[in-house]
């Protein structure tokens, strides 16, 4: 192991909570209760949904543009390194969908 990873593991082990001897987990997690949603929750979710639609539309446009570049370069007889572009656009779409799912899960009652 390199020095920085050894230090990281060392600090993680010492900072981790120790389990209780009674067989329980690392500690009690407080329950914040159900609460009530703030008055701006409805408009916030509307803006979030619109943002997701536009961002995923940009992702689809990215795939179309990459496909067009692949076609033009193949027609010219040039090789292309398009896999990197496809992976970047794919991961971007995954991040968008994941962020939207997390926020929707946190705000749903």
Notes on the protein architecture:
Residues 16-40 are annotated as: Disordered. Residues 29-39 have a biased composition (Low complexity). Keywords: Membrane, Transmembrane, Transmembrane helix. The chain crosses the membrane at residues 50-72, 84-106. It comes from Actinomadura nitritigenes. The chain is an all-alpha fold. It has a domain at 81-109. Helix content is 68%, strand content 0%. The longest helix has 36 residues, at 41-76. It is flat. It starts with a helix and ends with a helix. The model has no long low-confidence stretch (mean pLDDT 76).
Topology overview:
Layout: H1 3-15, H2 41-76, H3 83-107
Share of residues in strands: under 5%
Mean pLDDT: 76
Please give the share of residues in helix: 55-70%
Instruction: Report Rg.
Output: 23 Å
Shape: flat
User: Main sheet?
Assistant: none
Unreliable runs, pLDDT <50, ≥5 residues? none
Distance between the termini: 45 Å
Determine the structural class based on helices, strands and strand pairing: mainly alpha
What order do the SSEs take from the amino end to the carboxyl end, as H and E? HHH
Please count the helical segments: 3
SS elements, strand count: 0
Descriptive key words:
single chain; 109 residues; mainly alpha; 68% helix; flat; transmembrane helix
């Amino acid at each position: 192991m390199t020095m920085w990873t050894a230090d990281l593991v060392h600090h993680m082990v010492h900072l981790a909570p120790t389990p209780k001897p009674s067989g329980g987990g690392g500690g009690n997690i407080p329950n914040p209760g159900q609460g009530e949603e703030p008055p701006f929750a409805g408009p916030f979710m509307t803006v979030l949904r619109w943002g997701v639609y536009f961002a995923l539309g940009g992702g689809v446009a990215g795939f179309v543009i990459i496909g067009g570049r692949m076609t033009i370069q193949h027609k010219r007889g040039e090789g292309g390194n398009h896999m990197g572009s496809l992976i970047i656009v794919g991961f971007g779409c995954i991040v968008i969908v994941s962020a939207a799912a997390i926020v929707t899960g946190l705000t749903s009652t």
